[in-house]
């Protein structure tokens, strides 16, 4: 299967708001992604990033569903990927309403990338128990799986109780769910509960992101092999998308031939999607780099 690509919407670029963080910017970059051959555009989720993290390499983010709604309105076919949405930050029914709204209004184009999260001060700022984040993600997935069927959902949660929530209109087909993270719990959750797994290149900050190190192709191959073994153990037979955020393994400091070779290796491992984050001092340069990547690597 040929690898599909998702283009980052650079809404974290608050150093150049008028270039990157406006309705026009999101719309233009999304259209460029669609016309250049990218299969999706994506954003991340940081509602309350703390200053210390921002001052040491962290980044801002718009609300993912608001940002992707502007991308949806400017396009017709490109998928809309949350990479990743931290479900624990929101009441599961509130999160499901955002998911339902974007998926219905975009004509079923949402891919819900989600994960347990790692930024402890952000959990604290939002009043969420960091140590319970895995269970809270499972709880959110439970609710989402029920409420998107249109059935009346009764659910006793950790901090909420629903006696019969009904959500309409529901998507014709529920959006695919990809679980992010490099750890074995994340991979197990992806295999057991989702349609995809989204590991990422840690390139030296596995400790900061509280996940397992994957910074080489060999480490990724080992992680994928473990995931496939686990799938066999639990009897999963349906395909599992693997969306890898390759980071510096595909940056433009490497030659075109080196990057083609890396992509071929990733495809051979079973990777089905790659997220791409072009560089650029301004929007025009970013767009030029996105198009150049597409011309070289997207068939």
TrEMBL record:
Note whether Oxidoreductase occurs among the keywords.
yes
A single BP term in Gene Ontology: alkanesulfonate catabolic process
Task: Kindly list any coiled-coil regions of this protein.
Answer: none
A UniProt-annotated Pfam family: Bac_luciferase
Q: Identify the domain of life.
A: Bacteria
Q: Which UniProt keywords apply?
A: Flavoprotein, FMN, Monooxygenase, Oxidoreductase
Q: Entry's InterPro entries? A: Lucif-like_OxRdtase_Rv2161c, Luciferase-like_dom, Luciferase-like_sf, SsuD_RutA_monooxygenase
Q: From the UniProt record, which GO molecular function terms apply? A: alkanesulfonate monooxygenase activity
Luciferase-like domain mapped to chain residues: 19-263
Q: Which PANTHER family match?
A: ALKANESULFONATE MONOOXYGENASE (PTHR42847), ALKANESULFONATE MONOOXYGENASE-RELATED (PTHR42847:SF4)
Know the name of this protein?
LLM class F420-dependent oxidoreductase
The protein's organism comes out as: Mycobacterium asiaticum
């Amino acid at each position: 299967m040929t690898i599909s690509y998702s283009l980052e919407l650079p809404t974290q670029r608050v150093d150049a708001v008028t270039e990157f963080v406006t309705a026009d910017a999101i719309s233009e970059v999304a259209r460029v992604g669609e016309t250049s051959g990218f299969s999706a555009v994506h954003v991340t989720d940081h509602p309350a990033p703390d200053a210390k993290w921002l001052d040491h390499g962290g980044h801002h983010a718009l609300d993912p569903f608001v940002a992707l709604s502007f991308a949806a309105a400017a396009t017709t076919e490109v998928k809309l990927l949350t990479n990743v949405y931290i479900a624990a930050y929101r009441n599961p029914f509130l999160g499901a309403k955002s998911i339902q709204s974007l998926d219905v209004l975009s004509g079923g184009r949402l891919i819900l990338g989600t994960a347990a999260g790692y930024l402890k001060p952000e959990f604290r700022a939002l009043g969420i128990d960091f140590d319970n984040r895995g269970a809270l993600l499972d709880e959110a997935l439970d609710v989402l799986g029920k409420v998107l069927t249109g059935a009346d959902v009764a659910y006793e949660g950790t901090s909420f109780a629903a006696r019969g929530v009904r959500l309409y209109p529901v998507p014709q087909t529920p959006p695919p769910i990809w679980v992010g993270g490099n750890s074995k719990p994340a991979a197990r959750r992806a295999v057991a509960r989702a349609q995809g797994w989204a590991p990422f290149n840690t390139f030296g900050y596995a400790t900061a992101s509280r996940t397992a190190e994957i910074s080489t192709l060999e480490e990724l191959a080992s992680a994928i092999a473990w995931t496939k073994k686990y799938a066999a153990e639990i009897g999963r037979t349906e395909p599992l998308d693997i969306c890898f955020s390759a980071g510096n393994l595909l940056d433009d400091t490497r030659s075109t031939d080196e990057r083609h070779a890396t992509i071929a290796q990733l495809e051979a491992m079973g990777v089905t999607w790659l997220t791409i984050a072009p560089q650029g001092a301004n929007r025009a340069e970013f767009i030029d780099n996105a198009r150049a990547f597409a011309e070289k690597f997207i068939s």
